[in-house]
Amino acid sequence: MAVSTEIPYLLRAARGEVLDRPPVWMMRQAGRYMKVYRDLRDKYPSFRDRSEKADLAIEISLQPWRAFQPDGVILFSDILTPLPGIGIPFDIIESRGPVIDPPIRSLEQIDKLHPLDPASSLPFIREILQTLRQEVGNRSTVLGFVGAPWTLAAYAIEGKSSKDYTIIKSMAFCEPATLHKFLGKLAESIATYVRYQIDCGAQVVQMFDSWAGQLSPQDYETFALPYQQQVVKAVRATHPDTPLILYINGSAGILERMAQSGVDIVSVDWTVDMAEARQRLGQKVGVQGNMDPCALFGSKEFIRDRILDTVRKAGDRGHIMNLGHGVLPATPEENVAFFFETAKQIKSGVSG
């Protein structure tokens, strides 16, 4: 199918149009809550295979689109995917998550890193995104995504997921020059990666700074925000018309600062009331979210009420309906289907 010149619905919302209803997709919508995904995972147990072999990643990306027709289809990948392309190998172990060994702990290691050349190190990304565009046409918006510098640095320095981030924070507070050099190199490569995804077919790109919510506001302004801004500024210089979304988990204390990143849309987690988020962010920035993923374990009436509440508070301009984080693995598929059906039937700015 040829890509239509008509503008997909979610892209219109991301550009700030007033619409009859908010577009809707879910973070982590391709994944473990779907039986078809679990069946495919059993057949192909390596996450790297599933996310880096184009035919598998395309199939997984399209599974929720075929089932629920969301307004956004997001590339099935991982935020760590570009790291080997700059000289940081990693693995993803099913029960443990990402592992980076050896972790990045010294200036010598940082000096050995090289700029990202995505065409040579990430050729599968082009095939995945181009195919997704062909498959969905103008019926959905194809989203790309990347990790933000602070979060990628946290994984690389800690060597794995962390509960307290003591190693990267120790570097931030004891060897800030070393960390700043690393963050700058990451920002440069991430900007290259965002531009590459757009060139390959991504119509909107979401940047995940998942762990920046672990920073105090002053440390966010020092170690996260400047590097988000570096990425956004570099992308804007070459691709000014592609909307960018920023998501941070646990972002209630830094919401206004997130808007300073320069993105078009701030994705809000469920710890902030949507009406308050709108008030705090102002009119120039769109919003995404922000229903609690656990609400999908409630009754259909409860789910409907929560969707209504979010849509009413967000208003009729620049809102993309989503969860406040990824859909949880044990979520009943029929409730996900109900979420999409209901969100598509609700008018923007509804009352009651």
Describe the structure.
This protein has 352 residues and is α/β, with parallel strands linked by helices. 47% of the residues lie in helices and 11% in strands. It is built from 15 helices and nine strands. The chain has a seven-stranded parallel beta sheet with strand order 1-4-5-6-7-8-9. The termini are far apart. The model has no long low-confidence stretch (mean pLDDT 95).
Question: In a nutshell, what does this entry contain?
Answer:
The chain is 47% helix and 11% strand. It has 352 residues and is an alpha/beta fold.
Tags for this model:
single chain; 352 residues; alpha/beta; 47% helix
- Described by the principal axes of the CA atoms, the overall outline is globular
- Number of DSSP strand runs: 9
The amount of helix comes to: 40-55%
Q: Helix count?
A: 15
- Uncertain residue ranges: none
Order of helices and strands: HHHHEEEHHHEHHHEHEHEHEHEH
Q: State the distance separating the first and last CA atoms.
A: 41 Å
Oligomerization state: single chain
Structural class: alpha/beta
Q: Quick one: biggest sheet?
A: 7 strands, parallel
Q: Whole-number average pLDDT?
A: 95
What proportion strand? 5-15%
Q: For the largest beta sheet, what order do the strands appear in spatially?
A: 1-4-5-6-7-8-9
Provide the gyration radius in Å.
19 Å
